[in-house]
Every structure is written in structure tokens, then in C-alpha cells.
Amino acid sequence: MARVYNFSAGPGTLPEEVLKQASEELLDYKGSGMSVMEMSHRSPWYENIHNKAISDLREIMNIPDNYKVLFLQGGAHLQFSMIPLNLKKNGKADYLVAGTWGKKASAEAKKYLTVNVVASSEDKKFTYHPKVDPSLLTGDADYYHVTTNNTVYGTRLRDKDTTCLKNVPLVADMSSNILSEVYDVSRFGVIYAGAQKNMGPAGVTVVIIREDLIRDTDPMVPTMLQYKTHSESNSLYNTPPCYSIYVCGLVYDWVKRKGGVGVIHAINEKKAALIYDYIDRSNLFKGTVEKYDRSIMNVNFVTGSEELDKKFIREAGERGLVNLKGYRTVGGMRASIYNAMPVEGVQALVEFMKDFEANNI
Ligand SMILES: Cc1ncc(COP(=O)(O)O)c(C=O)c1O
After folding, report:
1. pTM for this structure?
2. Rounded to the nearest whole angstrom, what is the distance from the C-alpha of residue 284 to the centroid of ligand 1?
3. Which architecture characterizes domain 5-15+260-360 according to CATH?
4. Which residue(s) pair with 155 in the sheet?
């Protein structure tokens, strides 16, 4: 069986080693005689899997002791609501809108509190990451929300460029770049990420939250939407997405074996540079975002002709380079090169781009 190089934006490619291990353990998990899918979430077998995944994530992200790691459901989308529902105090929050997801998150928050958009790059179709004038941040906001990687447009916010006010919790949607580069967790109040890009299968959302932000909410907030519920039960209040959490655990272990997030980050920078450097030399392909803001996870590019873009995507597929079509509202091409995309996959893509350029210019 031949595996393709899968450039999907999400669910994205997973490390082959992890998939092999999961398949070896599928029918009989470590002598338990059953699959992780069939285990009680209250069994010692599963509890070990659950707690090891949490402790490994704490280790690879260097999460301080005064933070909780939660495994929730409902995708990153549900966090767009849970954040305001749980963090609301003064009834106002700041949002940095750098793409589709930040816009959606801020629209959802407007149902619950007053939203102040401190900066947006919508004026130029989100082709850059907006810079924030700190004087526009609200001193008594309940939180300040950013998206560290814009999956759709291919821009990113680096750790060193992430500013906030001292007493306002910084909340980050890291769905598409968690574990791809080092972020200093201690600077954030909440980090959340759907698993299906850099961590595992869809179905689980990781929330990393500073303990003082886990507090009583308005009693009307459903029990399942309160961080307190999940924090007090170690994310075992109801049946968690056990199998997805198990695979996330295998991925965390894989990250550790690779040498950690710092090592993976260096590889990611090299992979991204291979494509961007070629795009910058090419007479056919053009990058679509400002250079400094370029994402190292989602690389967007175009030929300038819709016909050629379609031909590129079709012929790439014939070479086993799949899911290169840009987001439905954006068009062009998008190569998502998450942690699990091997360097060889990126090299194969660049080789194909060169051939395509030679044949079509
Ligand atoms: C940055 C970001 N936030 C949020 C989402 C929505 O995630 P979910 O489908 O898990 O709700 C996505 C999905 O692509 C994303 O890339």
C-alpha cells in the first residue's frame, strides 16, 4: 500500500510511526485483550493513557504547575463560546482579527460581551498579520484573544510578537500551530487547540488554562460548558473521546522522541523555507502573504491563472501530492506542512512545482 503526501489543512497528516503503533495496538492494547476504543474510561488501563498524555503534553510544552490541561469536545468552535462564558467579569474583551477564525471567534463572543476589535487585516483580505497599537488595548478587559496561526490565509503570530497588558489574560487559538514552535505558556491565560492538525484525530480539543481563570460562572451556563466541571474531574466528567486522546498521547511521545518542540520547530522552519525560497525565485508561482508574516504551517500560493491552479492541483494529485487546493473562499493552492509532514514530502512538492513551471511557462 502506497501512502500519499497529504497536504490537507485538517484533519491533517499524522506521523507514520504513530499510525503503525496504533494499528499494532488496535486489537489488543498492551495485553489488555481489548482495543482502547472498547475500554471503560474509568479503567486503570485508560486512566494511565489519559494521565500520561496530560503529563507528556505538560513536559513538551513546559506548562507551569499552576495551569490545568483539559481534554474537551466540540472543537475549537466551542471554545469560541466557552471562553466568553467562563471568563466574563466586566463584560468586555479585546480581539485581534487576523483571519476567518478570529473573525468567527469575535462574532461568537459578541453574544455574551462587548467586543473591541483592536486590529484587523481584513482591509487587505488577511494577507498580513495586523500589528497592534498597545494603547488600543482595554485595561479592564476580561481577556485579549489572538489566533497564532491563520490556517486559511497562511499568516502567523510569533511568540516574541505576542504582546498583551499585564493584568489582562491572553487567550490564544493555537489550533493550527500548537507544538510547531515554542510558545511561552506562562504568558497566556488560556491556550486552546483542536487536535486534528498537529496532535491527533478530530474529536478532542486541548485547553490549557491558568488555574485562577477557572471560576464559578453564571449558573445558566450549561454544566458541560464550564471549565470548572472538567477541571475538577480531570476531564473525566463524562465519557471523553478516549481513542482520540490515546492517539494524541502517541503523538506527544513521538514529539519527545524527536527531541521536543524546539527541534521540531527548526525542522518546520527548514521545510517552510524550501517552499518559500522556491516561490520567491519562481517566475510562475507567487506567495499570497507578506513575507514576515508567512506561516510555517500553511503555505498559500497562486499561479495567477485559475485554470493553471486547477491543472496544478490535478497533476500534483496524480503524483501522490494531495489536498493542495486552497480554502474554498480563497482559491489558489495551500500546502499544509504540519509537524508530521516529512521533509521528503516537501522536497517532492518543490520538485513537482519546478517541473510544472518548466512545462507551463
Ligand atoms: C485556527 C483555527 N481555529 C479554529 C478552527 C475550527 O476548528 P474546529 O473545526 O475544531 O471547530 C480551525 C479549523 O480549521 C482553525 O484552523
Report:
1. 0.98
2. 31
3. Alpha-Beta Complex (3.90)
4. 150, 294
